[in-house]
Amino acid sequence: MCFLVRSKSGNSNLCHRQQFYEFVNNTLNIESLIPSSNLPSYICQRMCRQYIECLAFSLQRNERGFGMCNIYGTDIHQSDLIINDEFTVYMPCPLNFDWDVYVKKCYSVQVLGPNIWSKAVYYCNNTHPRAKLVEPRNAMENERIGLLAGGMDVWLGLYRPSSSIDLNEIRYSSDDQLATYTRWEGTQPNNVNGEENVVLANADSNYEWFDRNGDQEVRFLCEI
């Protein structure tokens, strides 16, 4: 997803991902992003102030669910011509997700649920075409999920196939591929009574992982 600024007059400027990261880091207080449901609006304001003499702006949702910041005003580089123009800024996340600059992913603006694991997966999959239950792929992502969870246990998009006899055969719920990163608590996984085939990040263990029965109701987060 790129950061796109397009004017109605036909001029356009396509910023690559790194340019967007630099913009966020240079103009926003990073801590305000975790979490910040007003992030799209705030970026909209900053873009307005940085690139044009802002007369007005509006934040809308496009057909893909991503934020569209429509900015109206006079181009400061051609202010002597007093030419009004309209710019549209496409945000990196849908409006019900926040951008995390550390791992460069979109996460739910708030912790969801509680719900059983299968319903958490279903909810995330139906929030946005590319959304899924969080799947930490490295230590940094696991740490960010823990911070966003705010002291609550959360489901992860990880499961063990019911036919597997290997306790460590853990797969991603989004694509059924073997997990490339794990963070098990020292006694885990243990599959008590043969009924623990999904994964939970445990707040009391600094978000180390436990296998659990998916019928428990637990909080969860979605990601894109």
Automatic annotation (TrEMBL):
<dbReference type="InterPro" id="IPR016187">
    <property type="entry name" value="CTDL_fold"/>
</dbReference>
<dbReference type="InterPro" id="IPR001304">
    <property type="entry name" value="C-type_lectin-like"/>
</dbReference>
<dbReference type="InterPro" id="IPR050111">
    <property type="entry name" value="C-type_lectin/snaclec_domain"/>
</dbReference>
<protein>
    <recommendedName>
        <fullName>C-type lectin domain-containing protein</fullName>
    </recommendedName>
</protein>
<feature type="domain" description="C-type lectin">
    <location>
        <begin position="102"/>
        <end position="223"/>
    </location>
</feature>
<dbReference type="InterPro" id="IPR016186">
    <property type="entry name" value="C-type_lectin-like/link_sf"/>
</dbReference>
